[in-house]
Amino acid sequence: MGVKLAVCMYGSIRTFTNPELRLKYKENFMSSITKLNHTVDVFVSLVRNPNGQNNRARTNVTCSLSYTELEEMVYDVFGKCSHFQVIDDNKELYPTASHHSKQLRGIDSVFQIANRHDKYNYFVRVRPDFYWHHPFDHTVLIPDTVVTAVKSDAPASDMFFVIPNSLYHTWWQREVEKNKEQLRCPIEYCIFNNVKVHQHKQINSALMRGNAGNIETWK
User: Fold this and answer.
1) What class has domain 4-218?
2) Lower Cβ count inside 10 Å, N or C end of the chain?
3) What are the E-state strand segments in 75-178?
């Protein structure tokens, strides 16, 4: 019997505009979840640069993206979406928070939306520019463990991770409250030290940088 998953995407748009990256999302992520007979609700918050511009990582290429265009891309990947929003980067949501605390609170804001929507067995964090080399499978879901993509130089990877409901309501909420203002290092090096973590060998931490020929992978 399948479980209920809240897929929570938060971050800068970057290469989510690339058709190949979205195809990998469909083939190796959404299609795999569907085959496992899991119930999935999707929650998306995309961060756009001022004036609607999207700066693709590690390049000087920018493009203007409307809300409607981004919404169509999200529905192309996920087929449905329980919550979709676009945040302009020039809107200062957390004025006193450090850069890393803003990232943590942004991820948490989507988790909170999902938690208010329904009760889920797992919360699944994904970046918009995450590149799915391999399929998602049932071994990613462990009841008492945070499962992340592989990133050997850190306790975890913040690009993709899965939190069981029990740890969301305990460990995750504690870490957000403790670090919501002055987190001084990237979250994968700080907040995962106080919880059981499994880096899943089948899921590489991988981001598409600029175009389809530039996939940056961590091992």
Assistant:
1) alpha beta
2) N
3) 83-88, 122-126, 146-150, 160-164
